[in-house]
Amino acid sequence: xxxxxxxxxxxxxxxxxxxxxxxxxxxxxxxxxxxxxxxxxxxxxxxxxxxxxxxxxxxxxxxxxxxxxxxxxxxxxxxxxxxxxxxxxxxxxxxxxxxxxxxxxxxxxxxxxxxx
Amino acid sequence: xxxxxxxxxxxxxxxxxxxxxxxxxxxxxxxxxxxxxxxxxxxxxxxxxxxxxxxxxxxxxxxxxxxxxxxxxxxxxxxxxxxxxxxxxxxxxxxxxxxxxxxxxxxxxxx
Lengths: 116, 111
Known about the structure:
The complex is a heterodimer.
Chain A: E1 5-7, E2 10-13, E3 19-24, E4 31-37, E5 44-50, E6 53-57, E7 65-68, E8 75-79, E9 88-95, E10 106-107, E11 111-115
Parallel strand pairs in A: 2-11
Antiparallel strand pairs in A: 1-3, 3-8, 4-5, 4-9, 5-6, 7-8, 9-10, 9-11
Chain B: E1 4-6, E2 11-14, E3 19-25, E4 32-38, E5 45-51, E6 54-58, E7 61-66, E8 71-76, E9 85-92, E10 100-101, E11 105-110
């Protein structure tokens, strides 16, 4: 296991189409996070899972976005009816369940989405 | 006002210089403070993390947190051209379920 893996690395889609991204976290990491990063900005939190349970969603996650982690391992992020404003890098991160002094999260390489 | 403020730079220094990168924040609930390095079109790579206030050193990198001033810093000693990247500060409350990132500072180290 060499780290968090995301697929695809790049996706170009036409406005109005649906897209789905996959994230495979580091083995045995209970937590999985999704972030979105636009050009010149830091990542913005979207949602996170503790095992298969989705515990928090950002207000940025509109009803066109849905994330799943059905078996507590890999996760998918789906965007329905894509808009040009959805163009961004979608980043996945994973971590063990945080303890008081240990909360390191490791990011994947991201999926760059371009909506034309 | 953003919750986490970070000067986007760009910052350009000669090889061997000491680099100082900083962030300020407004949320007193933050207890975990991280620095990530991000190369162009790549995912962020964790460099340092610090719990609560204090200093932490790892090789050429030193992270400092001053919670009383809501101010964090990353120092890079003997900077190298390979350090050229965007440096992102991030912080979160206990659960690490919602890291708040700065906009990132773009650093160039010239040979």
